[in-house]
Amino acid sequence: MLAQIAQYRKPVSGVLLALMMLFTLYAGLSPSIESYKAIWPSGLLAGAAAILLLPDTRLAQRIQLSVLVTVGIVLLLFGLNMGADVHWPGLLSQNTGLLCMLFSVGLLKLIVTTGAAVEQKLPVGRKAFLHTLISVTGFGSVINISAPVVIADRLSLNRPLDYFSAGTVVRAFSACAAWSPFFGGMAVVLTAVGDEHVLSMMLYGLPLTLTFLVVLYVGGVLFTPEKLDAFHGFPIRLESFFVPLSLTVMVFVANQLLPVVPILSVIALSATLLTLTILIWRQGVTATIQRMIEYIRVDLPKMVSELQLFISAGILASGLQSLVQVGTLHSPVDEFTGVTACVLLALLLVIAAMGLHPVILIVSVTPIMLAINPDPVLLGLTFLFGWSLGTCISPLSGTNLIMQGRFGIVAWRGAMQNWPYIAVLYCAACVILVIRSKFG
Questions:
Q1: Considering only CA atoms, which of 215, 433, 258, 265 is closest in space to residue 345?
Q2: Is the pLDDT reported for residue 79 higher than 60?
Q3: How many CA atoms lie within 13 Å of 173's alpha carbon, on the beta-carbon side?
Q4: What is the DSSP secondary structure assignment for residue 428, as one 8-state letter?
Q5: Is 381 helix (H, G, I), strand (E, B) or coil?
Q6: Is 227 helix (H, G, I), strand (E, B) or coil?
Q7: Are 310 and 63 a contacting pair, CB within 8 Å?
Q8: Which residue blocks in 144-183 are alpha helix, DSSP H?
Q9: Are residues 422 and 322 in contact, defined by beta-carbon separation less than 8 angstroms?
Q10: Is the pLDDT of residue 184 over 50?
Q11: Per-residue pLDDT tens for 11-21?
Q12: How many structural domains is the chain composed of?
């Protein structure tokens, strides 16, 4: 009996998540629906899938999730006792919009070709190092965690992945979160400060991403030139960028034509339509249907970490919001300035280095900071930069854990080697934050 339950547990959870995506897209496309939080079935479906997939969760994450949910419920009960008006449909639906976007973007891995899968000899040297940085950042900005995995797999095809190569991939991938609208970090921030600020945050975030690449390359040239000269890199193929560029154009055009549709829904729909179109063109309708069924049954349940983390973080956010509503929680500052943003960013990085996921920090801080009516772009950038830099130096970030599980790169050691780069990039991030505060 237990074996039969285990056999169907993942496919059933995949179907539940697919239904959650449909409800969420319906909410995004319906002008009469105020937000994703108003569609309670999507939250129930996501919550049911998260429970079904608990046996696939690592013990450390189960403990973290338990703490988040417990604290969130305790805060909710306290808020209710103080007279808070809790929005119950949003308890589990706080983050369904960004989950829908992440799951839809995950479809892109079905159509992305790297152009190097059959190439047995990798380029070597500084140019190959630069091409690897550009490839990881270019692909990662659109297809998320699939990009560093694909590229690291290729780099380790004929040799074990060393710490320098692994660090290069992790650092370049972390740069994506500073600007990419297709990234989980941006989705979390937009949920916190509002979709209408996405273009401004991209505009201010892109310079940090470019600074990331410059610092990584120049740092390699100045301090580890011998490693750059011997670096086996990932080759750039122009045709490989067709999908990322196509998705970017689709999102931009759709956002102009449908300005009232939330950007998360625009991205989810664009990624889904692009994937279906290219799959049908390459493989035909029947094969495309089979591949989509496989994605729902097999691939969606693999995103269990993101699912459970965002559901739990949503419960915590609801509890914190109830306390802010009744006036129990207060901001330690009266004004959110550029200096305040830099201090908050430093705190986010220190806590991230201790292993706390950025999404937990964001949902915890947002209700408190929104109470003082900050510049939403400045606050969003602070969170975005905290996500980008923090995941790089956190030993428990998904990227570092993947490098450990897949390639044997010890997570804490991999995170430690990123600190010198992040120290420099923190200063660059502060410059951008101060500029925004002065001239925004």
A1: 433
A2: yes
A3: 27
A4: H
A5: helix
A6: helix
A7: no
A8: 146-155, 163-176
A9: no
A10: yes
A11: 999 999 999 99
A12: 1
The CB density around residue 313, as the number of other CB atoms within 10 Å, is: 24
Q: What would the two tokens of residue 228 be?
A: 């750059």
Contact 291, 283 (CB under 8 A): yes
- Return the structure tokens found at 299: 């691939």
> Where in the sequence is the domain holding 380, given as residue range(s)?
2-439
Question: The pTM is what?
Answer: 0.74
Question: Helix axis angle, 96-105 relative to 184-193, nearest 10°?
Answer: 160
Q: What is the DSSP string of 235-299?
A: PP-GGGGHHHHHHHHHHHHHHHH-TTS-HHHHHHHHHHHHHHHHHHHHH-HHHHHHHHHHIIIII
Report the 3 state secondary structure along 332-350.
Answer: CCCCCCHHHHHHHHHHHHH
* Sign, CA torsion 279/285/291/293: positive
Q: What are phi and psi of 242, to 5 degrees?
A: -60, -45
User: Tokens 């428990």 correspond to what residue?
Assistant: 396
Q: Residue 15 — φ and ψ, nearest 5°? A: -65, -40
The answer to whether residues 98 and 317 touch, using CB atoms and an 8 Å cutoff, is: no
Nearest alpha-carbon partner for 28 in 20, 39, 36, 37: 36
Token pair belonging to 306: 């993101």
Give dist(CA 425, CA 385) in Å, integer: 10
Pairwise CA distance, residues 97 & 77, whole Å: 26
Cβ neighbours around 379 below 10 Å, total: 24
pLDDT grade, residue 351 (50/70/90)?
Answer: confident
Gap between the terminal Cα atoms of the chain: 61
CB atoms within 10 A of CB 349: 24
Q: CB-based burial of residue 2 (10 Å sphere; 0-12 exposed, 13-18 middle, 19+ buried)?
A: exposed
CB 193 within 8 A of CB 379: yes
DSSP annotation string for 119-144: --S--BSHHHHHHHHHHHHHHHHHHT
CB 187 within 8 A of CB 97: yes
